[in-house]
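Explain this record to help learners:
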Amino acid sequence: MGARFDDLATPFLYVDLDRMKRNIDAMAAAARELSVQLRPHAKTHKVPEIARLQIAAGASGVTLAKVSEAEVFADAGIDDLFLAYQIVSPAQLERVIRLARRTRLRCAVDSRDGAERLSRAAKDGGVELQVMLEIDLGIERTGVRAGVEAFDLAQRVADLPGLRLIGVYGFRGFRAFADGAESREAWGRAEGEALVSAAADLRAIGLPIVEVSAGSTPTAVPAGSVRGVTEIRPGQYLFGCANVVAQGAMRAEDVALFARATVISRPAEDRAVVDAGSKTLSTDGPWEPGRGFGYLASDPSTRVAGLWEEHGVLRLAENARRLRVGDRVSIVPNHVCTAVNLHDRLVAIHDDRVEVVWTIAARGRIE
């Protein structure tokens, strides 16, 4: 602790603590202003210590994708969890029941078979599970369509022993390159309106729908502005990444997570090679087609044009052509969640000094 971060061997991921804390506080303040609960998706950072910072700022709990992630956060004392993923295998259902005995746990369903499996596990385990019904908001991933399909499934869930249907949730995403960054507000409001409408339809047939959970980082605030939404679930907002900036959800100057890398080759005037490849940045594509795998923080017009496992090729804009072998650079990756999952630790920086090093405790927890 206290060392200069440029004394560390590259490549590594680091967090600007001041920016991250501002981002955490800003989303918490937005949720309070909208009178909605904030339940951040912790798959972005996978660090229980960061979840505690989010909760201290006002988050009600966290959202997670996998049982193994939830176990890590429960072991660290985070006891209000939403497992926003369809859990159907017997071995994982057994673990869900063990989690439900020691935490406040919400589970997701989007099919009759999945609900029945969850019900059998809850009944056999002697617990009652709170259940959120996932609504398909048009991205054709998981979720049940609003209307007759949602009616039928919700009624079945309500009738099953061991389950208590408490709400609906959904995920819509946002593609600024296709729809224009200026459409994000309308896109997010439409997400919130679709979920509120689905909840109202279910209440109309006598089901006690209490929770309406919406929003990823680009849509959380506009979705949360819809009357009837009770909760938002942004994930990337505390760090940001190239895709979030491209979506218009964050400014480049608010991005708080970077890959630190060293220039190892200058084979051409417009090209530099760094020691951060696909094992550091991930190969997730950009929301803006053809825009590479991230950009140089000091010069966003310089893009990571190509990735090999241990090599990143920078296509240098004019202002970056002074780079020399041995120079160190900071790169904003396309997708922060997948980049974080590649690393064992996260270096937190304040005034160019190492303040703390966090273990990414839930990295690789994909089961």
